[in-house]
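User: Can you recover a sequence for this backbone? Please restate the input before giving your answer.

Assistant: Of course. Working from this structure:
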């Protein structure tokens, strides 16, 4: 039996607020993402399931809130895997555009045709990071989503996110982060999880993955980039990568001949 070898390019866009991966994905049997995620099958429906409810669904698009325990089978196709902003603005903008659900996972975008056209345009044209970001912004807000009042706690939680992003090597305790944000430690723990969907420690690890990929875009080796991003060793990196993204670093970076990484510090 002859197996088709995927030689399509893999595109990885890295922004401060979002991360966009377009390309080959393995089966993801067991994942709890540290950021809300938009999954899109570029060629056909894929299978997704929610562990809490036990429900499964075939769909072309799925919106997975951060911290949701789920699995997915891409069914041997190129996928869109877009990690959304940590404060939930993208999630709130996209949610009204979805037509169905399995547990907390929303499925079947009302504007599926337009959404697919946007992502196929990015794959075909490989635009600079700033232009690709603009395509996502226009897509996410195409429906003119209803404005939702922000909690007064968004500002201090944004302050904590900024502190983590400014120094990924820092291991300052949550008490220190809470003090800098004008919160108590219990307030920080409660509101950070409520607003972002994940605990502070998990978001720290998530951001270190982002830093690792960003350093590799400037020519660093995987080992050196991981060390500079704060991972103690390759085992630590592999475990974090698999638990948060659903695949090993080698799955992506062994395909380096097909991988293109785009960055844009403005976003």
């Amino acid at each position: 039996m002859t197996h088709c070898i995927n030689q399509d390019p893999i595109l990885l866009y890295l922004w401060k607020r979002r991360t966009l991966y377009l390309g080959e994905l393995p089966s993801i049997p067991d994942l709890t993402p540290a950021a809300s995620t938009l999954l899109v099958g570029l060629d056909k429906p894929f299978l997704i399931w929610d562990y809490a409810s036990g429900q499964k669904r075939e769909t072309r698009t799925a919106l997975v809130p951060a911290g949701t325990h789920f699995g997915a089978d891409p069914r041997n196709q190129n996928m869109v895997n877009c990690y959304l902003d940590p404060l939930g603005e993208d999630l709130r903008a996209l949610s009204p555009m979805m037509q169905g659900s399995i547990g907390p996972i929303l499925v079947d975008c009302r504007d599926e045709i337009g959404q697919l056209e946007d992502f196929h345009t990015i794959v075909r044209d490989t635009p600079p990071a700033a232009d690709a970001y603009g395509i996502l912004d226009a897509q996410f807000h195409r429906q003119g989503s209803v404005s939702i009042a922000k909690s007064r706690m968004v500002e201090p939680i944004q302050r904590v996110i900024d502190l983590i992003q400014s120094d990924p090597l820092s291991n300052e305790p949550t008490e220190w982060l809470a003090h800098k944000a004008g919160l108590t430690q219990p307030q920080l723990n409660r509101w950070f999880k409520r607003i972002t969907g994940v605990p502070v420690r998990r978001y720290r690890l998530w951001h270190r993955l982002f830093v690792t990929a960003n350093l590799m875009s400037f020519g660093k080796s995987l080992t050196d980039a991981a060390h500079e991003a704060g991972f103690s060793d390759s085992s630590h990196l592999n475990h974090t990568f698999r638990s948060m993204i659903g695949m090993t670093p080698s799955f992506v970076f062994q395909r380096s001949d097909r991988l293109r990484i785009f960055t844009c510090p403005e976003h």
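That completes the design. The domain at 10-140 is CATH 2.60.120.10 (Jelly Rolls).
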